[in-house]
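Summary for the steering committee. The consortium agreed at its last meeting that each partner would contribute one worked example illustrating the joint modelling workflow. Our contribution is presented below. We chose a case with several input lines so that the handling of multiple components could be demonstrated. No manual editing was applied between input and output; the record is shown as generated.
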Amino acid sequence: MSMIIEKGNGTGVLPPETFGRSRRSLKLVSCILRTEKLDAVTQSLNKLNLVGGMTVTNVRGVGHEKENFELYRGRSYSGNFVSRVKVELVIESDDLDQVMKIIGSEAKTESVGDGKIFVLNVINAMRIRTSEKGVDAL
Amino acid sequence: MKLVTCIVRPEKLDTIKEALDTLHIVGMTVSDVRGFGRQKGQVEHYRGGTYTINFISKVKIDLVVQDEDVAKVLSTIGDAARTGNVGDGKIFVLDVENAMRIRTGEKGTSAL
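What follows is the complete predicted structure of the assembly.
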């Protein structure tokens, strides 16, 4: 891998071919989930050993559920921000389909407000302790 | 422009901020997050077999920098955040398509 790092173009960004012959690349999976579904999602992902780690943030937001779907003490509220957790994980693109399927099935309640999953391209990653880069950093 | 997202130890935040100051990189967003890495938090054995996955508190630093600064920023944050122990965190680099300074409407790198 050290050889590969030296091939970098000086911007800290690895050219695509340095991810190996299989064209492995990194994806950021960012999901907004119901807070109570976090444990189920975490456990299923860990069972399959697909993810090296994840980051969880408490967030609030509005989605399609804003039309009076949130009930509080018998009253429905509209336009309020609802609490969710944002789960972010960086994975190899090869595992993307499987991870999305697991999160999708675990986080589902079939009612409005189950959340969304977004996938973004990650150009590079670095493990701070060892300075490993790319897929090795996961 | 690139988005540099770092998950680091909370106690290293000040060191990292000072290190970035010397590079004249100002402007960052910090969030308190929890998560786990390869070690799955601390694996606890409780009355025989059961274990739980613990989320460990970290801070996430998001900064948007110009392409030519990415390498510098990576090594600076890496050096400032390193303790050599497991749990030092990770840095991810993502592409940013555009940016805008809300006050003036400036776009692109001049918005940074």
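The mean pLDDT of chain A is 79. The longest strand of chain A covers residues 115-127.
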